[in-house]
């Protein structure tokens, strides 16, 4: 018995369409990285990283680019390998541990009875890229958790040129990591200056 060609063709067509719908582009995941440094050997100063917060448009796992002054492009396949807030916390902690040679680094929130000497609060205002450059804008605060007093508050803006309009996301992640290192160096300099002014603070 020979079946009409339409009887055979329709199921094949439907199966082909369903298979096409089930195929999604492969996702790629990226990490921010800390600078290489010798393992810290000291126990002072004690540092607390956080809280770290993000502007709402960055609070997602997709890498963000700007295609115009007020237009964003959110990649469907280029993603952070961890929540961006966690990645920034991790990198700042590792960078500062190396720069200040201290093993005493904790993440916010910490136990109130074991508050660190210095807390580092960061709000990321911008972290995105155009066809020409990558930009990081943050407001940061170094404070004393013991009494919540501010030591230094700054608004920092960094921008790094991209090698071309088709720069890949791995290049972006590397540039953001470099800018976080520069931010870490500024924060470390503030803490060193404070310790130099008040040596007693470093032994609390």
UniProtKB/TrEMBL annotation:
Residues 30-188 form the ABC-type transport auxiliary lipoprotein component domain. Residues 1-19 form the signal peptide. The keyword Signal applies. It holds the Pfam family ABC_trans_aux. InterPro entries: ABC_trans_aux. It comes from the Bacteria. SUPFAM superfamilies: XCC0632-like. Keywords: Signal. The keyword Signal applies. PROSITE patterns: PROKAR_LIPOPROTEIN. This is Membrane integrity-associated transporter subunit PqiC. It comes from Pseudohalioglobus sediminis.
């Amino acid at each position: 018995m020979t079946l009409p060609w339409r009887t055979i063709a329709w199921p094949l067509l439907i199966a082909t369409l369903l298979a096409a719908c089930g195929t999604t582009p492969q996702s790629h995941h990226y990490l921010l990285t800390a600078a290489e440094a010798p393992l810290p050997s000291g126990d002072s100063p004690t540092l607390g990283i956080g809280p770290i917060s993000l502007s709402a448009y960055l609070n997602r796992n997709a890498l963000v680019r700007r295609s115009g002054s007020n237009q964003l492009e959110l990649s469907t396949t280029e993603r952070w390998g961890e929540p961006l807030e966690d990645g920034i916390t991790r990198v700042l902690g590792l960078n500062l541990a190396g720069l200040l040679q201290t093993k005493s680094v904790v993440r916010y929130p910490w136990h109130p009875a074991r508050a660190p000497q210095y807390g580092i609060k960061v709000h990321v205002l911008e972290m995105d890229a155009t066809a020409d450059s990558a930009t990081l804008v943050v407001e940061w605060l170094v404070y004393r958790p013991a009494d919540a007093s501010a030591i230094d508050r700054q608004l920092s803006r960094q921008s790094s040129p991209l090698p071309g309009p088709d720069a890949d996301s791995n290049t972006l992640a590397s540039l953001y990591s470099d800018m976080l290192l520069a931010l870490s160096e500024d924060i470390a300099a503030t803490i060193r200056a404070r310790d130099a002014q008040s040596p007693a603070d470093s032994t609390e």
